[in-house]
Amino acid sequence: MEQDLRSIPASKLDKFIENHLPDTSFCADLRETIDALCALLKDRSFQGPVRRMRASKGVKGVLIKEIKKQLCEIQHERRFGVKFEVHSLRSPNSRALSFKLSAPDLLKEVKFDVLPAYDLLDHLNILKKPNQQFYANLISGHIPPGKEGELSSCFMGLRKYFLNCRPTKLKRLIRLVTHWYQLCKEKLGDPLPPQYALELLTVYAWEHGSRVTKFNTAQGFRTVLELVTKYKQLRIYWTVYYDFRHQEVSEYLRQQLKKDRPVILDPADPTRNIAGLNPKDWRRLAGEAAAWLQYPCFKYRDGSPVCSWEVPVRTCHHHLRPPTPLLFIYLENLPTQMWSLHSCGGHWLSLFHSHLSTVHRFHGLTGCLSG
Q1: For residue 361, is pLDDT > 60?
Q2: Which of 15, 128, 149, 178 sees the fewest Cβ atoms within 10 Å?
């Protein structure tokens, strides 16, 4: 597959994506299974009266063990049309539980993580911009050193809508980038930057380099890889959910954006730098990106090179002026790649698509998106 992708002419990348979309029947079975699984977990887990508990790693570990118990019971009941496999916990106080759904006849599998999360967004309409006092309270309530992003799993709903509002072709470009990322991961191994950082980088490249719903896929792909090679200059954020208008939030954002690059702030959680804390991870990926830029997938049939979009690598100046809020009006009826199981004893069990793989080794968080 790697050889196939890098040798495909730039003009054929759209066809490559189309040919490697997940099978429609598999996606339908997958959604049906997830809906049934969510319903079963809601009925079985954390029955009885709701009790208030102080959030801690120990409490999360207890919740994960309970979830695993219920998933194992469901697994043995064999009531689903796809194969169900629960993975062992990585540690006694693991913060996530992994399981896998697969369809042997289709030679495809999907891996999931189950995360217990405080229902932080219960009172918020995730289709609207939250009141900035919400973020001010978040910042004032939990920012001890080294604890930034501790509540990231609570923002899964906002994160989902941030990606799902995008035009169809951009989502296809995201799928291509995440597929490339998985090829790099197979070759280089860990550690690498988080895959979500590459997805956000793709959104950023499109917003600042194109913003049209019909664009040249090879140009977008090349732009993202060039941004990866410029990781030391990346300072990226969005003002979709939070902004500079609230003084406390503004001061915190300024401090976040002054940190060593790369900085890619989570669009839903300003306390979390998606780019991670280890530049060496980016250096390894940047080396691979630089090599790929020489491959035929970035050349047309006549041998001429594909040009990238003109995209700045910094979204703010040194004095950090408040930016103009971004407005997104794409209201397509899009299938979702994330599922949230609400109200389990005062918690959310966030089920999110970790990565999709097929016999063609097609991976990606957004791999389940069609269109």
Answers
A1: no
A2: 128
CATH architecture of 2-358: Orthogonal Bundle (1.10)
Q: Considering the chain, what is the average pLDDT of its residues?
A: 75
**C-alpha to C-alpha distance for 231 and 243, rounded to whole angstroms:** 24
Backbone angles phi, psi at 9, to 5 degrees: -60, 150
Please give the structure tokens belonging to residue 282.
């980016």
Percent of the chain with pLDDT over 90: 41
Pairing of the two strands 235-236 and 263-264: parallel
- Top pLDDT among 260 and 36 is at 260
Q: Where are the domains of the chain?
A: 2-358
Average pLDDT over residues 107-122: 70
Give residue 192's identity as a one-letter amino acid code. L
The secondary structure of the chain, three-state, reads: CHHHHHHCCHHHHHHHHHHCCCCHHHHHHHHHHHHHHHHHHHHHCCCCCCCCCCCCHHHHHHHHHHHHHHHHHHHHHCCCCCEEEECCCCCCCCCCEEEEEEECCCCEEEEEEEEEEECCCCCCCCCCCCCHHHHHHHHHHCCCCCCCCCCHHHHHHHHHHHHHCCCHHHHHHHHHHHHHHHHHHHHHCCCCCCHHHHHHHHHHHHHHHCCCCCCCHHHHHHHHHHHHHCHHHCEECCCCCCCCCCHHHHHHHHHHHCCCCCEEECCCCCCCECCCCCHHHHHHHHHHHHHHCCCHHHECCCCCECCCCCCCCECCCCCCCCCCCCCCCCCCCCCCCEEEEEEECCEEEEEEEEEEEECCCCCCCCCCCCC
Global confidence as pTM: 0.75
pLDDT value of residue 126: 65
Exposed e or buried b per residue across 29-49, where buried means at least 16 C-beta atoms within 10 angstroms of its C-beta = bbeebbeebbebbeebbbeee
Contact yes or no for 175/369 (Cβ under 8 A):
yes
In whole angstroms, give the CA distance from residue 10 to residue 7: 9
Whether pLDDT at 190 is above 70? yes
* Beta strands 347-358 and 83-86, pairing class: unpaired
Position 326 pLDDT exceeds 70: no
